[in-house]
Specification:
heterodimer; A: mainly beta; Ubiquitin-like (UB roll); five-stranded mixed sheet; two-stranded antiparallel sheet; 1 helix; 7 strands; 9% helix; B: alpha/beta; FAD/NAD(P)-binding domain; seven-stranded mixed sheet; five-stranded parallel sheet; 34% helix; 24% strand; globular
Chain lengths: 82, 417
């Protein structure tokens, strides 16, 4: 298994250690706002355990993925919803 | 849609679910343990094979129990069946006995600015770091209430963070009384001493809570209230949680009796619903000791080996007494009911402010009028907050208890027909 996994966050290439969660990979890339709330506020991860849904993102075209509960995989394309 | 059948189905692979699943499988039952997270261990053992966790995870593996990660329960289509979403694919799992080990989550309290990115739960930030977020040289304020704050602060510091302050809302007198009560529990006293040592030099305030978080697009500073005095701290992260609350959505859905905020169980961890057991935090916030002991009891009892289960009674009852002492020491001060202003967003999913909710006499009325609690988290965050702030109580849940893309289920149906 490769030690480093490459992905893109809003088109930007990012390399992170294997086993990193998607949410941590996005934060590592320097992005704090993962989505906009219904009234347009920026939001990022809160609970870290899959219950608050604030960290949801689009992964490989699939919307509303809870990024704290998913691990990075080689080549995934992650888009924030801001 | 696939359907699989087990003697014992365990929901949750934290310490309670691991103990229950292993105990039942070792007793000869055909067992499945399902869990929402990428790996077993629950929140306390998340993402790290620690000395504590490794033997338990190994025991579960050797027990022969079938394990399903990244799987969450959506609904109960009928008695003895749960509908789950397993990594985006629907499945129905049939069981004879069900053990609920759904764990707990942090209680969040809303205050101005708590919705800013980089304001997270205390356990929330710890989970992010365990998931690979580097915090070296990051300035962190840890606030809220309970022993978790110390554990999180020590962990973050060990990972290189600058923990600028720990702000505990409880008074020093209460916390000291609690610490002294540990004298009868040497293991806990030793844990406390280790934490204290790991946190040497970190400013520790009691009777102190956040008033506001500020920043342009993300957190830049926290304003705290320390006995009426304002403290202002520039920081990168605020890790803030006010104790733990049990995850009761599935017990509610199944109709289990809830007493004083926890699932009511008998001495065998059996709930009011036939063939449904419960272990761990949903029966009492008693930490690891309660989770493991109640899990063993539930697993053995569900597998028909009640006599063997008795050996874990004393450990469980001791952990329950510890819970009572902890609840008293870290009870939320009434003053915290004012940390949300009328304009503060309480329901983050639907952006509902406190003043819109307090116009209504019941949770149901507030929900119908404002959509509060109707977003994807389904009240998991705002429910416990509102209960403390206003006394309004969530009284029911509706399936699906986790939102799922409808498409996945339609595809599943199509495959079946």
């Amino acid at each position: 298994m490769a030690d480093t996994v490459r992905l893109t966050v809003n088109g930007k290439a990012v390399a992170v250690p294997a086993g990193t969660t998607i949410a941590a990979a996005v934060l590592r890339s320097g992005v704090a706002a993962f989505r906009r709330s219904v009234r347009g506020q920026p939001r990022g991860p809160l609970c870290g355990m899959g219950i608050c849904f604030e960290c949801r993102l689009t992964v490989n075209g699939e919307a509303h993925v809870r990024s704290c509960q998913g691990l990075v995989a080689e080549g995934i394309e992650v888009r924030t919803d801001v | 849609m696939s359907e699989i059948a087990y003697d014992v189905l365990v929901v949750g692979a934290g310490p309670a679910g691991i103990a229950a699943g292993a105990a039942a499988a070792e007793s000869g039952a055909r067992v499945c343990v399902l869990d929402d997270n990428p790996a077993p261990g629950g929140q306390i053992w998340r993402g790290a094979v620690t000395k504590d966790a490794a033997p338990w995870i190994e025991r579960l593996r050797l027990s022969g129990a079938h394990r399903m990660q990244q799987t969450c329960v959506i609904d109960r289509p009928r008695d003895g069946r749960l509908l789950v979403d397993s990594n985006g694919r629907p499945a129905v799992i049939a069981y004879n006995k069900l053990i609920l080990a759904t764990g707990a989550r942090e209680r969040f309290l809303p205050f101005p600015g708590w919705t800013l990115p980089n304001v997270m739960g205390a356990g929330g930030l710890q989970a992010m770091v365990k998931g690979g977020l580097p915090v070296e040289d990051k300035r962190v304020v840890v606030a809220g209430s309970g022993p978790l704050l110390l554990a999180v602060a020590a962990y973050l510091r060990q990972r290189g963070a600058q923990v600028l302050m720990i702000a505990e809302q409880a008074s020093w007198a209460n916390v000291r009384r609690f610490a002294l009560s540990l004298i009868h529990q040497p293991a806990k006293l030793l844990d406390a001493a280790r934490l204290k040592l790991a946190l040497l030099g970190v400013t520790h305030h009691y009777h102190c809570h956040p008033r506001a978080a500020e920043g342009d697009g993300k957190l830049e500073r926290v304003l705290l209230d320390a006995r009426g005095k304002e403290i202002r701290v520039e920081c990168d992260y605020l890790a803030c949680g006010f104790g733990l609350v049990p995850n009761l959505e599935l017990p509610w859905l199944l109709g289990c009796e809830i007493r004083r905020g926890f699932v009511a169980v008998n001495e065998w961890q059996e709930t009011s619903v036939r063939d449904v057991w419960c272990a761990g935090e949903p029966v009492g916030i008693g930490g690891l000791a309660l989770a493991l002991a109640s899990g063993e009891i539930a697993g053995l009892a569900a597998a028909g080996r009640r006599q063997r289960a008795r050996q874990f009674f004393s450990a469980r009852d001791k952990a329950l007494r510890f819970q009572v002492a902890m609840e008293e020491a870290f009870a939320l001060r009434n003053e915290l009911k004012t940390i949300a202003t009328p304009e503060t967003i309480v329901c983050r999913c639907e952006d509902v402010t406190l003043d819109r909710i307090t116009r209504h006499a019941s949770w149901r009325a507030a929900k119908l009028a404002t959509r509060c609690g109707m977003g994807p988290c389904q009240g998991r965050v705002c429910g416990p907050a509102l209960e403390f702030l206003t006394g309004l109580q969530m009284d029911s849940v509706r399936a699906p208890i986790f939102p799922v893309p409808l498409g996945a289920f339609l595809t599943g149906e199509a495959e079946q027909s």
